[in-house]
Design goal:
The relative contact order is 0.12. This protein folds into 3 domains: 59 residues, N-terminal domain of TfIIb, CATH 2.20.25; 83 residues, no CATH class; 155 residues, 2-Layer Sandwich (Nucleotidyltransferase, domain 5). Helix 4 packs across helix 8. 44% of the residues lie in helices and 18% in strands. By secondary structure, it is an alpha/beta fold. The longest helix has 22 residues. It has 10 helices and 8 strands. The protein has a 5-stranded mixed β-sheet, sandwiched between helices. The protein has a 3-stranded antiparallel β-sheet with strand order 1-2-3, with no helix packed on it. The chain is globular.
Length: 308
């Protein structure tokens, strides 16, 4: 294939992608799909942004791809999210941006980005149904929020290592575990029959409430795993150690609402942006139909903005 043929093929694919994008976009004013390109809007830090024109209401607008009214380029924002959850602190990320970008931001701006997109993507992924196995495991990790004990509780599908549900809470009461397990049950396509936990008594009581233990006693297998046993509950403990690798340098969380968003972002990172060495895949690939590219943060933000 000649160089000119390769160029023509690339231009053809680019046009097909643009046509597909226009076909799923609607006017934010009148919800019409009769839209066309109409010039660009020049910004200081993001360069030129494509404008569109609606043939029905005669208004111009910019598509909301998840970065609407953001002052920095999408590649910079998604790289910040990835660097933070891979272990870099807010101030180290700021220093990194000063080296590689002409424009940079403060560490508090970076924290606001993490909170914003963790909430946006979290609202999207929480609605995804998971093609789970029949076994789940769950456990909690202790932290501090304003010098008070707090817990991050995660529910994992054993075969795919996918975190089906999680919650950051100030207590380990029965109602908290009922809410977490109810969310896991609601997000699961297949019925769950086997449950692997440690010896905390509230686990068994929560499982009885959510999965109707008394009515399905023959199909229900709640296995209690203790540290001295050979079959230790190591898969969820390995996930907990992965969390500790990132959070061990943090003294404590200052606000409960902020801690919940930050830990929600870690759940998203673990499920969608981090390849698991045990299965040599991303956990989402085994339980969902999502097709994400190399920049998975960017694709998740785009999908989240379309779902709004």
């Amino acid at each position: 294939m000649s160089r000119q043929e390769q160029l023509n093929r690339f231009l053809w694919k680019s046009k097909q992608v643009e046509y597909k994008r226009l076909s799923v976009c609607v006017c934010p004013y009148c919800k019409s799909k009769k839209i066309i390109k109409k010039g660009t809007r020049t910004t200081e830090k993001r360069g030129k942004i494509q404008r569109y024109f609606c043939k029905d209401c005669k208004k111009k607008f910019v598509l909301n791809d998840g970065f609407y009214r953001m002052r920095f380029v999408d590649k910079m924002i998604t790289s910040v999210l990835d660097l933070y959850y891979r272990g870099m602190s807010l101030r180290k990320i700021k220093e990194h941006l000063q080296v590689y970008y002409e424009y940079f931001c403060s560490h508090m701006t970076i924290l606001r980005w993490i909170r914003k997109y963790a909430k946006m993507i979290g609202n999207f992924v929480d609605k995804i149904k998971v093609n789970n196995s029949n076994c789940i495991t769950f456990d909690e990790v202790e932290y501090k929020t304003k010098k008070q004990k707090s817990f991050f509780i995660g529910v994992m599908d054993i075969e795919s290592r996918f975190i089906v549900s999680s919650e950051y809470s100030l207590d380990r009461e029965l109602g908290t575990f009922i809410n977490i397990l109810s969310k896991a049950k609601r997000n699961s396509i297949n019925p769950t029959l086997n449950f692997y936990t440690d010896g905390l008594a509230v686990y068994r009581n929560a499982l009885k409430r959510v999965y109707n233990y008394k009515h399905h006693a023959k199909k229900f297998n709640h296995r209690i795993i203790r540290s001295q046993d050979q079959a230790f509950n190591w898969k969820i403990e390995r996930f907990n150690n992965t969390i500790r690798e990132r959070t061990k340098v943090m003294r404590q969380f200052k606000e409960l609402w902020s801690a919940r968003l930050i830990m929600k972002g870690f759940e998203i990172f673990y499920n969608f942006c981090r390849k698991h060495t045990g299965i040599n895949k991303y956990p989402y690939e085994l339980v969902t139909d999502l097709k994400l590219g190399k920049n998975k943060w960017l694709d998740l933000i785009n999908l989240s903005s379309q779902a709004c």
